[in-house]
């Protein structure tokens, strides 16, 4: 069969499919060292993982929406109205307390992360017969939902999505055991069906199955198998952020003409990918710098001014790009094709 690459086999393989496997290999090879440094997150770890990957991937959406003049004009009301909506919702939620605010945002973030894996899987199965698409849906949702159920039903984990106690917890060993067997039964079913179909049709969808297996491994080892904050962050952030930024660049910049891109056509030139990355890094660092001096004061502190009385405005406002990214993804990737 002709493999349904988004761009090319090499670029898809390196930047979209490989990150989950590479990070997991690093975790398995250096787990003892990672465990030792778990309690001592360095400034550079925060800078690379949180700022330059996690926050940066949020802003990569700009290159598909706000930075593309024709696209912005086409859906102007959405692109203007959604950030305002996100701020107002965030402001209302924060009035009920910061814990309520971060809990709601955490659930929205989890849904966004799950849907991204589903989206990649659908992209890579776009040429297949949709009769048995429900089986692919079953395995990709099982690969992501089961680890989250494990998180909700197990004793306290050593990591958080945003803040402590953000998820409702219900410790239940019996339910954990039931869900575990259901999950592994689905995994076995997927493996048997994939092998059978490959032999029967003499074809194998490499990228689709790589996304499914990579998702299963990164979510299972990041949340269920390991109970380590740094391991969770590595598998969660890298496996999500790098493929997303790569998709934006490969699909929205590499494939489009200079006329379509307008002023972004500079990214089509030599070393355009480096310009793309640098822009994202600058914007991401600028946002996180504001978070640090106005809210967190953990990595950077350059002022003694107390902003605590302004948190009800500052936190919802600073969260607008992130919140908008989560919701906007539900619109910009939909296609009837």
Structure, described:
It comes from Flavobacterium cheonanense. With 337 residues, this protein is an all-alpha fold. The mean pLDDT is 89.
What would you say about this model in short?
The chain crosses the membrane at residues 12-31, 43-66, 78-96, 132-153, 173-192, 204-226, 232-251, 272-290, 310-328. Keywords: Membrane, Transmembrane, Transmembrane helix. With 337 residues, the chain is mainly α.
Blueprint of the fold:
Blueprint: H1 9-29, H2 31-36, H3 43-59, H4 69-74, H5 76-95, H6 98-124, H7 133-153, H8 173-201, H9 206-225, H10 229-254, H11 258-261, H12 272-296, H13 311-318, H14 320-332
Keywords: Membrane, Transmembrane, Transmembrane helix
Transmembrane segments: 12-31, 43-66, 78-96, 132-153, 173-192, 204-226, 232-251, 272-290, 310-328
Protein name: Beta-carotene 15,15'-monooxygenase
Give the total of beta strands: 0
Radius of gyration of CA atoms, rounded to a whole number:
21 Å
**Overall pLDDT score:** 89
Strand residues, percent = under 5%
**What sequence of helices (H) and strands (E) makes up the elements?**
HHHHHHHHHHHHHH
Query: What is the straight-line distance between the termini?
Result: 20 Å
Helical/strand content category: mainly alpha
Q: Which overall shape is indicated by the principal axes computed on the Cα atoms?
A: globular
Low-confidence stretches: none
Helix % is over 70%
- The number of distinct helices, counting runs of at least 4 residues, comes to 14
Quaternary structure type: single chain
Q: Can you summarize the main beta sheet?
A: none
